[in-house]
Amino acid sequence: MTSDRLPVVVLGGTDEADLSAAVLAAQLDLPDAVTLRLELDAEAGTVRRVVHDATGTVDDRTSLMEHACHSCALREELVPALLELAGADRWPAALVVLPLGAELLPVGTALGTDVLDERVPEHLELRAVTAVVDPAGLVERVVAGTGGPEGAEVTAAVVAQLEYADVVVHSGHEAAPQDLTLLRHLARADALHVDSTLSVDGAALLAMRHDVDTASRCTSPLHRRPTGAEDADGITTVVLESWRPLHPHRLMEAMEPMVLASLRTRGAFWLPSRPDSVLAWDECCGQLRLGECARWDGKRRTHLVVTAHVDDVEEVRAAFEHALMTDAEMVGAAERWVGRPDGFEEWAGAA
């Protein structure tokens, strides 16, 4: 090897056939690379690692998951496995194939920093984090309730992967212009788009450099911004923001219309009952996740990035503005609200 660090390319997706096709294309470009595939079996509580190269299978072992958290179990298997491969000094690069639907952010953080193992920066170099996505029917899939709970879970995984990835590989299935527009409104502005799995260029992936800070900021509730994609095909992205908090009671009323009229909403907000808490808003496929994600360090603000059909934007905006505290309500708000029950204990704990 020409470097002390093993270059690593990560590939994730939610469809086995599409992901395998992209991996094969990368392997053909990088015949000397080693491939590490991880498989999680939640029911059995096991994680399997399979390592192979051009000569055949190098390693195939199954171990018990040490964490109920799948992302944690994945990282704690992945990092030692890659460090072993780097230590063997046999391969010029490694391709990592993640379990279907795996979160990319914790993998990127584990392989791009020393947060999990201080040896990582010395021995591994994360080049590209890749999401293989089928854009066909994407708009329909993210509409509230489409596909039921299982379908919503898969689509939410698709959205999370494409919002973090350096490279978005389109599976090649025929997609409507509206689907492709929505994809552009969700993917990072600087993401490289590959129009089919057959067009995956392993050498090009290996030539990239994954920037953990940039990717993490793009998915952080505090730093969410529109991707800059042009409004087209009835799809738009708007920012709803204010220095004022949301009124807890009126927010309860506003959540349903905001969720139903949105394709994807993400960002941060605050409540007068929890003035120090940064509360994350993460809505996709009609499912809304709320919770404390940080503490305010500086000026508080409410900032939501909403991607929706053009015809639905005003409904979302009206519900948002209805939920905002008024100037009159802000007078003496601390005395009336701080530390008192606000109805959000289920999501954020006691105020």
Give me the number of helical elements: 14
The number of strands is 13
The radius of gyration over CA amounts to 22 Å
Outline, from the CA principal axes? globular
Q: Mind telling me the CATH class of the largest domain?
A: Alpha Beta
* String of helices and strands: EHEEEHEHHEHHEHEHHEHEEEEHHHH
Major β-sheet, in short?
8 strands, mixed
Q: Tell me roughly what share of residues is in helical segments.
A: 25-40%
Rounded mean pLDDT is 94
When the domains are counted, the total is 2
Percentage of residues in DSSP E strands: 25-35%
| Structural class by SSE content | alpha/beta
Gap between N and C termini: 55 Å
Runs with pLDDT <50, length 5+? none
- Order of strands across the biggest sheet? 4-3-2-5-1-6-7-8
- Going by CATH, the architecture of the largest domain would be 3-Layer(aba) Sandwich
The CATH topology of the largest domain is given as: Rossmann fold
Tell me what the structure shows:
The chain has an eight-stranded mixed β-sheet, with helices on both faces. The protein has a five-stranded antiparallel β-sheet with strand order 9-13-10-11-12, sandwiched between helices. Helix content is 36%, strand content 28%. Helix 2 runs parallel beside helix 3 (104-112) and helix 3 (104-112) packs antiparallel against helix 9. Helix 7 (177-186) links the parallel strand 7 and strand 8 (192-194). The protein is an alpha/beta fold. The chain folds into two domains: 4-217, 3-Layer(aba) Sandwich (Rossmann fold); 233-335, CobW-like, C-terminal domain (Hypothetical Protein Yjia, Chain: A,domain 2). It is globular, with a radius of gyration of 22 Å. Residues 235-324 form the CobW C-terminal domain. This is CobW C-terminal domain-containing protein. InterPro entries: CobW-like_C, P-loop_NTPase, Zn_Chap_cDPG_Synth.
